Structure formats: C-alpha cells, structure tokens
Amino acid sequence: MKALSAADLRRRRSLIVLATLSILSTIVFGLLQKSGQDVTYGFVFDKEWVLISQWVIGSKTASLLFGVISVAASALSYFQFKAGKTSKIASAVGSAGILMSFISWAAAGKFIPITGLLQGALLLSVPLIFGSMAGVLSERSGVVNIAIEGQLLAGAFVSGVVASLTHSTFLGLIVAPLAGCLISTLLAVFAINFAIDQIILGFVLNVLVYGITDFLYKKLLIPYQGTWNSGPTLASIKIPLLWKIPVVGPILFDQTIIVYLMYAVVFFVNYSLFKTKWGLRTRAVGEHPTAADSVGIKVNRLRFMNVMIAGSVAGLGGAYFTVGGVGSFSKEMTAGKGFIALAALIFGRWTPWGAVSAALLFGFAGNLQSVLGIIGTPIPSEFMLMVPYLATVIAVTGFVGRVRAPAADGTPYKRGESH
Amino acid sequence: MRKLSIKRPSLRALTLPGLAFLLAMFFGALLIAFSDSKVLKNIGHPIAFIKAAGVAVWQSYLALFQGSIYNPNLATPHDSLLSWGPISETLVTAAPLMLAGLSVALAFRAGLFNIGAQGQFIFGSIAASYVGFHFHLPIGLHIIVAVVAAILAGSIWGGLVGLLKARTGAHEVIVTIMLNYVALYFLMYLLSTTPFLRPGRRDPISPDVLQSARMPLLLGSNYRINLGIFVALAAAVFVWWLLSRSTWGFRFRAVGANSAAAKTAGISVPFVMTAVMAISGALAGLGGAVHVLGSDFSLTSGTAGNFGFDAITVALLGRAKPMGVVFASILFGALRAGGGTMQANTDTPIDIVLVIQALVVLFIAAPSVVKWVFRLKNLKTTGELAAKGWNG
Fold first, then answer.
1. What distance in Å separates residue B48's CA from the closest CA in chain A?
2. Percentage of chain B with pLDDT > 70?
3. Burial class of residue B299 (count of CB atoms within 10 Å of its CB; 0-12, 13-18, 19+)
C-alpha cells in the first residue's frame, strides 16, 4: 500500500471522525431513545408562516433513519476516498444526517419549522459572512484583522444614525461602508505605516469603537431618540420567479438588498481572489511579500487598499443590524458577531467558500439553539451557544486537519528585511 | 512648543505614558464637548461655544476627579476624612484589575498574548464564590480555601491554552478569544442550575458569599477598601521576583525574546508555554477571587464585567512590567471609579473611559504620534511589543 500524504492522512482522520460520530448518533439518538413521541417537521411557503405541508414521524424512527443514512453516507465517502475520488457530497450528506438525527431526538414531541429554521440561520449568518469576507480580504494580503467587530459596529452605528437623521435607508446604506472603512484605515495606517502589532491594534480599535458608540448612544441616541435613533428599515425585495421555489425561494430570494449585496460580495471576493491579477497579487503579498516585491508589486500599497476594502465590506455588513433589521441602534448590538466572523474565517481556513460555509454553520447552530430554546429541549441552550467557539478551538488545534494562516499574515513588510 | 528635556531615566519612562494620557484626555474632552447639547446650540457663536465646551469638559473631568480621589462634599462634621473616600473606591476597582493586568503582562514577557484573562477571571470568580457561599469553614481558612480554588480554576483554564499551543501550535489569541465565550456561557449555564441559584430568586444571581469568606475591610465599614489591594500588590512583587530574580523567569523571558534561541539553549519551550499560561491564568483567577470576595460578593453573568479586557490595556500601558501594571491599574481603577460618579452627576456617560483607555494604549503603541504632537525628537522608545502574526 502506498504511503499517504499529509493531506490524505488529514482527510482520512476527518472521515474516521465523521464515521464515529454517525455511529454514535445512531446509537445515542436512535437506539437509546424512548419511543412513543412524534416529531413534526413543518414546511412553510412564505414569511406569514402558512404551512404548506408537514411531516409527522416517530422521533425514535426519525433519529434511527437519519442515523443510518449518515452511517451509510460516511461509509460511502470512505470508499470514495479509498478509490481516490472526491467525497465532498457524501460527507455533507453524512454530516447533515447526524444533525437531523440530533434534531429529531432533541425535538421529540415538538414541532420544528424547517423553513423558519433555515431562514433564521441565513439571517444570523449575514453579518458573519460580511465579517468573514472582510477577514479574507485583509488577511489574505497579510494584515491580521481582529477589528472586524469594531468595523461591523461602526457600520451599524453610523448607518442607523444617518438613516434616522435623513429618513433615508439609501443614505444609511451608503455611509455604512465608509464608517467601516474609516476604522480599517486606522488599522492600515498603524499596522502598515507604523508597523504596530496588528493583534494589539485590532483589539484596541475594537475597544475604541465600543467606547465611542456606547458614549454617543447614551449621550445622544437615548435622550433624542426621535431624531437620532428611529431610522427607517429596508423593505425586502422578492426576486421574480425565483422566490416561488418551494422552501428555498422564500429563504434566499425574499430578502433585503443587503442580503443580495452579500451574495455579490461573496461571489466577487471568491472570483477575484483566485481568477484575477489583483487576487494573485494579494495572495502573493500575503504569503511571500519579499518575492512579490521583487517582481515589482507594491506590497504595502496593495495591503493598504485591501484593508480599506475589507473595512468597507464589514461596515456594509454592519448596516444589516440597523437599516437591514430593526432600524434603531442599540448598545453593542453586534454582540461579538465580529469575533464569530473571525472564527468562521479561521474555521474556513482563510478561503472565501470555507468562511461562508463556516458562517452558515455557525448561523445554523445559533438559530437551532434559539428554536430549540423556544420549544424546550434536554440540551441547555448555553452549550449550543458554545458550538462555534469550541468548533474553532478544535479546528485550530488541528484535530481535523492543520489550519494554516497565510504565511506573512500579521508581519509588517519593510523592504530590505527578509522574513 | 518648547522642547522638553528629560534627564533622569526613571522620569523618562513616565514621559510617554504621561503624554499619551494627556493626549487621550484631550480627545476625550473633544468628544464630550462636541456631543453636548448646550455646546452644540451655540455652534454659531464662537465665544459662547468655547465657554459652553469648557464648562461641559470641566464639569465632567471634575466629577471624574471627585469620584476617584477627593470629594469635599462627602465630608461630615464628625469625619472630614470621608472626603478622601473615593480613593478607597479607586483601589477597590484597581485590585482585580491589577491582578488581571499582571496576568496579561506576564504572558507578554514570555511572548504570549493572553486575551483570555476574561475567561480565567470568570473561572476564578466561579470557584471563589462557590467555595464562599457553599461551604461553612472557620474564618481565615475559608478565605484561603476560596482563594486557592480560584487560583486553581484560573490556572487550569489558562494552562489549557498553553498546553494546546505547545502541543498543536494553536495560536493563543484565537484559542483565548474563543475560550472567553465558552467561559461566559458556562457561567450562564451554572447560574441556571440549583446550587448557584439564590433561594427565593429566579433570576441568574448566586447566593451571597458568607461573611467568613469575605476579604477583611481595612478601614472599617465606611470604606469598601479591603485586603484585596494588598493581595494584588503582593502578586505584583511576586511577578517582579519571578521575572527578574528567578531562573524560571529567566527562561520565560528567554522564550519571549527568541523561542528558537531558547530552544537551542536547552529550554523546554512547550513546558514554558504551559507554565506561563498556567501562572497567568492563576493571576487572573485570583483577580476574580479578589473581586467576588472583596466587593461584589455574588456571582452574576456580568461578574467579570470588563476586567479581563481592561487588563490588556493595563498591561500595555504598564509596558508589561509589574511596577508599570501597578500604576496603570490604579490609573484605570480611578477612571472607572470616577466614571461612575461622572455619569451620575453630569451628562457624560462612563463610556468615555473606554475611549480614553483605548486612545492611551494606541498612543503608547504608536509613540511616533506622541512624539510628533509634542515635538519630542529625542524621546527614546523601545519596541518591546513587536509585531507577530498568526504563525508567530
């Protein structure tokens, strides 16, 4: 038998983890569960929650069924791996099976609105996706961006206030990226021009944005709420035809403009990073700035630009909290979402699609927690809330494969100093 | 502006932090002035505008001073010393901050960035308060057991980070950011369980720590100042001794300065990482104990407040030196204590303190800005907080 490469070993290890988990979930959620209760899955068509169909099944049967599906899928993915083929689809089915087996167990005797669950998951993921794209843009060019939280919060604050003062969601949407860009420009100036530790810097910028927004919130937004903090919100736009697709349609294509902008951002970041000259240069500067410099790329100028774009993207994501959501700003309303976005970036191994998948996963975990919290389940909600953070710790400790940052991420570049 | 000339080296060390603080207070003043409704009303009249701005800033900073150092209005005919009472509040806030700041500073010196002081602080306060309200032990012994429990809890939570970094190379910043949230949710979970519920209450608040486990008050019941501040000062002396006088400390600093060279010299880098993070966690956990046993007495989801994060600014302002941390934590303790009074007596919210803290640290980290503003060409600054990335 030929020796496996490091990458293959890693894949094998994660497949073994998947298989073990699927067998465990079949046993724990399926075989050990007391029978006799039903779980009801509901599918709704639109936001008014009109039920179009529902599916009632014994929860033990469902857990067993999904457990067996996941075992079969992980076995299939292992055979595909042995045969040297890609096993992404089978692994995805396997993971989904484990999840459904768990949900069927946790929601025994209850009603689970599948469409609502997925829709809520997407909505929770939106700021995470914007934030993690900001992370990709900045960190792939070699500047660590811990200030995603601050950029989101600045975007949320400024867009909320401007929309409220001008009664215009459009203006609110325009200024949000500018606010994020302002914070990231500070990051760029201090990190690139002054070569200050980017982790410390990002941390301090977060504190600064927290301080300024908390201060102005108490001093202006609360006392003068009518003028300063009661902004309009964006209406959702239905994409013709597409939104009528059952289940998927209302989730993906009946959203506000911010969500559509998010699709565009994800597409463009992924496309440009891997298919354009700019993307190639960005990656070169993030991995080996000296080599990039030697072929004439202006390392620090490119980094500066990327960090500014990153801040704008995160700032736009911030608008989702105010004009894209409730309209008014509330104190520290990003509530650590910027750090989960950072977690998604790392969990997704600094790639756009990886980060998006991780953000969706974290959004799903968050929403599943709130849905299960409402219907009442055996798992304390606090443990569900820990999932993104624990998953990231497990990811960086290399349990399911080594996570590697861009090689020059966080290292200031000065011509003539080799790294 | 005249060039400042500084001769004594000890004074020179204070120049940069001092000027950074002045500059931060100046920006804070701008923020206060430009968000004040009375000031903004006079925006068309330059003289009235400046006057109103001056009044707003003066009142706010006066209240800040009165809440942290000296307030003549507090004196009573029987006891004029009460006007110095705010100092007690400053030191009560400074004690946990000092311990958490020492935690971050110690890790810094070994080349590790401990953002996890918050989580370690939380675990320390959980352990200390649980021992404090659950067990019945004699006076004296009870405090010791509670404090030791907090130290252990903090050092396990911190040591875990060091172990993960040593074994797998997982970056401590990522791990500690994530573990802070895990600690917070764990605390919230505990507060929903029976042992941590206060009898008769359904909201997440623990029973009060028993009298026998509370830090003894130093100046009677008029002042909240307690043994905690001396615990914190003793810890500062310990960290100074550890770093400057012990073999272990030498190894810690060697790893911090150049881990590859330290490894070549025969120092076990994985062991040092684990040990540093464990001691660092112990200090933050002790901070949690001092806070819960000294002034808060019960556990809520907000017990740790912002201590673990303020600790980072304290360590940075104190340039990761024990002496520096002592002064920095008293300064920020004063800002916190005074900020409360300021918020109660004037229109200025306490959150201005966060802005000042962030700016101070930003200016300390970027001395070029301070040098440029104050025209100090020959002020020497050292780059001890050199930049490192995720792979460093």
1. 21
2. 93
3. buried
Strand, helix or coil at A9?
Answer: helix
Q: Pinpoint the residues of chain B covered by CATH 1.10.3470.
A: 84-341
Residues in chain A with CB shorter than 8 Å from the CB of B316 are: 200, 204
Residue A4 has pLDDT above 60, yes or no: yes
3-state secondary structure (DSSP) of residue A409: coil
Among A121, A118, A115, A119, smallest CA distance to A44 is for: A115
Q: What's the CA gap between A137 and A279, in Å, rounded?
A: 10
Report CA A120 to chain centroid distance, whole Å: 13
Query: Which segment, A15-19, A227-231, B117-121, is predicted with the most confidence on average?
Result: B117-121
Cβ pair A230, A328 in contact under 8 A: yes
Q: Domain boundaries in chain A? A: 6-114, 124-396
A28-50 CB burial, b ≥16 within 10 A, e <16? ebbeebeeeebbebbebbeeeee
- How far is A313 from A151, CA to CA, in rounded Å? 9
Taking a contact as any Cβ pair under 8 Å apart, which residues of chain B between 264 and 303 contact chain A?
Answer: none
* Residue B1, pLDDT above cutoff 50: no
What is the Cα–Cα distance from A398 to B12, expressed in whole angstroms?
Answer: 46
**Mean pLDDT taken over chain A:** 84
Q: Classify B99 as helix, strand or coil.
A: helix
Question: H/E element holding A254?
Answer: strand A254-255
Which residues of B fall within a CB distance of 8 Å from A219?
A: 35-36, 347-349
The minimum CA-CA distance between B351 and chain A, rounded to whole Å, is 5
Alpha helices per DSSP H over B191-293: 228-245, 247-257, 259-264, 269-291
Supply the CATH classification number for the domain B84-341.
1.10.3470
Burial classification of residue A370, based on how many CB atoms lie within 10 Å of its CB (0-12 exposed, 13-18 middle, 19 or more buried): middle
CATH topology of domain A124-396: ABC transporter involved in vitamin B12 uptake, BtuC (1.10.3470)
Contact residues for A275 (Cβ-Cβ < 8 A; gap 6+): none
Which ipTM did the prediction report?
A: 0.87
* Residue appearing with tokens 């860009």: A181
- Mean pLDDT: which of A39-48, B93-102, B221-230, B306-315 is highest? B93-102
Maximum average pLDDT range among A59-63, A401-405, B29-33: B29-33
Q: Cβ of B164 under 8 Å from any chain A Cβ?
A: yes
Q: What is the mean pLDDT of chain B?
A: 88
Q: Are A200 and B168 an interchain contact pair (Cβ–Cβ within 8 Å)?
A: no
